[in-house]
Amino acid sequence: MTSAWTGERVRLRAIEPEDWEAFHSFDEYSEAVRNGHQLHPPQSAARARKWAAELAEQTQGLDDVRLVIATRDGNVPVGMINTHSLDRVHGTFAYGIGIGTPHHRKGYAGDAIVLLLRYMFFERRFQKAEAWVYSSNEPSLALHRRLGFVEEGRRRRSHYADGRYDDEVLFGMTIEEFTERHAAS
Fold first, then answer.
1. What is the helix (H) or strand (E) element at residue 147, kind and residue range?
2. pLDDT digit string (tens) for 30-75?
């Protein structure tokens, strides 16, 4: 039996309360945190435990999902992926992804994105995915281009972190573009 949530390197799953420690440790890598959104003051282990426990208890919708990216072998949490900005009328959605720094450059992000897009396109009938990437995040820019996303626009100087302003680059991929590149075998 093959799960729709399992790829070559990762499996997507719900968060479990014991995942708190992995995600808490990822916050130690300030540059990666800035690339994902913005740097926050450190949080306590107690707060991280509460965050994971609360997420584990939440009921997820079919479209608005937040999933742990775990290694296929070993089930070790390496990051998280979520959908947002869902528009059922137009069939569009956006997603965000974060991979913990110790797990960068291992193919986990690309594998997770393909799994999520396959679900959203072929199970939930969306027709276009979007992602915003900060212009200083060269690895993420390269990943989205490699996956076949098209650069559709740029919001200039719209993100401030580490003493500099970055542009936000909008990427998009239609179901047809996805199917051409990543059709399930």
1. helix 138-147
2. 566 566 666 678 788 898 888 788 988 988 889 999 999 999 999 9
